[in-house]
Specification:
Elements (H helix, E strand, L loop, with lengths): L1 H8 L2 H8 L3 H28 L7 H29 L1 H6 L1 H25 L9 H24 L3
Helix pairs in contact: 2-4, 3-4, 3-7, 6-7
Length: 155
């Protein structure tokens, strides 16, 4: 595993990222923009699923916000991978980073389950209890991922 991590750090792309005054900060900014898209979209949808704004259609919000959340996740994950290769050995050994990755994995599985459960609940139906629980878990999960991500840089 150490060989793979060292190999990632030794790639020309990692060297360019580490050595550039502008590229690394731009990748970092894109990572944050992805997080903002993901968390902004998922927060609005989760709050609706929990019970806020009952006059707004959860199905319509989901159709609008789910692609935004998915695009945000794709941007955050791809830019995060670029940030990772710059210090792969250090990040992989950090317990906070490991915890962040576990939380993100849980968030993705939770979102996929909630989406599946919503699709099978039928349009116009009351929001199932398990979907409400998944929405509450989603808010806590993504907030935790953001907090852990910030802490990685300080410890």
């Amino acid at each position: 595993m150490q060989g793979l991590l060292a190999g990632l750090e030794a790639t020309p792309l990692a060297a360019v990222l580490r050595g550039s005054v502008w590229l690394y900060p731009l990748v970092n900014a894109a990572h944050i923009a992805g997080i903002a898209l993901l968390f902004g979209a998922i927060t609005a949808l989760d709050l609706r699923l929990i019970g806020l704004w009952p006059r707004q259609s959860a199905a319509v919000l989901s159709r609008v916000l789910t692609p935004v959340a998915v695009a945000g996740f794709a941007l955050a994950a791809s830019m995060g991978a670029l940030l990772f290769i710059c210090k792969a050995s250090e990040y992989a050994a950090a317990s906070l980073f490991q915890a962040k990755m576990a939380v993100v994995a849980f968030g993705v599985v939770n979102a996929a389950l909630a989406w599946r459960w919503m699709r099978h609940s039928g349009a116009g139906q009351a929001i199932p209890r398990r979907v409400r629980a998944a929405a509450a878990a989603s808010l806590a999960t993504w907030l935790s991922a953001i907090l852990l991500g910030r802490l990685v840089g300080y410890f």
